[in-house]
Design brief:
- With about 210 residues, the protein is of the alpha+beta class.
- The chain has one domain: H-NOX domain.
- About 45% of the residues lie in helices and about 20% in strands.
- The protein is built from eight helices and eight strands.
- The radius of gyration is 16 Å and the shape is globular.
- It starts with 14 loop residues before the first strand and ends with a strand.
């Protein structure tokens, strides 16, 4: 997937930094999600003593696939919805959910960040360069969907995730916020991440990243 050179934002104005599609309208629904996101979540739940309750709340549909998935496998979106339902049923507070996001960061965008940091000895690495990589790595994490990064002010950007089945899940958005925060704080410890919008047409959400 080649990054778009121009793109229509969903959640307001902003200067394009990078995007997967020329418009959020062109992003197809997410069909599959890479297994390492779920594996990382399960490891984090196990480390915090929540795994047994999570496992017991998985429904029969997709249960074995979720418990046996490897990091490199693709999971059908139906199974990811089951995973989210089990996680929501644990009724963890926002702080715990953000901590889960922090813990799984290295299994998602953190993997890309680590690669880029190794290259930074030659080209230099800052938050702006990292932001440009988010849409590039999208196909490694998600089959379908799309995303765009838009600059709102010199040190504030809005990251939009398009046509994602879990956009309406507060649990998913909170965990994602923690994961994105952990990724960018490796570059700039003063980074903050907050919600910037959610919609169901198409199912999408946005985060505000200040650094």
């Amino acid at each position: 997937m080649s990054p778009a050179t121009s793109s229509e934002a969903l959640f307001g104005p902003g200067e394009l930094v990078a995007a997967t599609h020329p418009s959020y309208r062109e992003a197809p629904p997410v069909r599959r999600i890479r297994g390492h996101v779920v594996v990382g979540l399960q490891e984090a739940l196990r480390a915090r003593g929540h795994f047994e309750r999570y496992r017991d709340r998985l429904t029969a549909i997709g249960r074995s696939d979720l418990l046996e998935v490897s990091p490199t496998e693709w999971l059908a979106v139906e199974h990811v919805v089951v995973n989210d339902s089990a996680l929501r049923s644990l009724e963890l507070d926002d702080w715990e959910l953000r901590e889960l996001g922090l813990a799984i960061a290295d299994r998602s965008y953190g993997v890309v960040l680590s690669t880029l940091m190794r290259l930074s000895a030659h080209v230099g690495l800052d938050v702006s360069r990292m932001l440009q990589q988010f849409p590039r790595v999208h196909p490694k994490l998600l089959d379908g969907g799309g995303q765009g990064v838009f600059r709102v002010s010199p040190r504030v950007v809005r990251w939009e995730m398009w046509n994602h089945p879990l956009a309406g899940s507060p649990v998913n958005r909170t965990v994602t916020r923690g994961s994105v925060l952990a990724t960018f704080q490796k570059l700039n410890p003063s980074t903050t991440v907050s919600e910037a919008g959610v919609t169901d047409d198409p199912p999408s959400f946005a985060l505000r990243i200040q650094y």
